[in-house]
Design a protein that fits this description.
Length: about 170
């Protein structure tokens, strides 16, 4: 079976998403939300620093073949999961909890990279992205060391999750 890469071009509809990718996004969302809520279950923990790295971010949005509705990709899954986890973690706390997330979205294909940036800039996550997201038009291998250094700079207690697509 040959793999045909998705193609994103500004001004064009997004590519169709395959069923296995829909399942992958569902699992990713559940994992990220659960990871944060489990790691912060101790109500005395005042904050958590987390770095989320999407090594092969794509254009950020797809189209479902069955309904033609938009299906948001892994960068949006990460934004949504952190929003949901933060809400869940706040429940039952007397003092506010601080979830400090820094995102790295890496995409080597220039068209997909531009599509991703445009989609995020025109989304509900635009301000979150402006403050906390790094968009890198490169290969994962080219920027991996730089990201590792940034994670180290964030200090003790910082955690990182790397999402690396099987086709990358």
């Amino acid at each position: 079976m040959s793999y045909e890469n998705h193609s994103w071009d500004l001004g064009s509809p997004p590519p169709e998403i395959r069923p296995h990718s829909i399942a992958k996004h569902r699992v990713l969302r559940q994992y990220l939300e659960k990871d944060v809520t489990v790691l912060t279950s101790n109500k005395r923990i005042p904050e958590m620093r987390l770095t989320l790295v999407d090594g092969f971010a794509g254009g950020g949005v797809y189209q479902r073949s069955d309904t033609r509705q938009l299906h948001y990709g892994s960068p949006f899954v990460m934004f949504e999961a952190m929003k949901n986890a933060n809400i869940a973690v706040q429940e039952g706390r007397i003092k506010p909890f601080q979830l400090e997330v820094e995102y790295f979205f890496i995409e080597k294909d220039r068209s997909a990279f531009e599509y991703l940036q445009s989609t995020v800039q025109n989304s509900e996550y635009a301000s979150e992205a402006k403050e906390h997201a790094n968009f890198l038009n490169a290969t994962f291998a080219e920027v991996c060391h730089q990201i590792e250094e940034r994670i180290d700079q964030r200090g003790r207690g910082g955690r990182a999750i790397f999402v690396l697509d099987q086709f990358g």
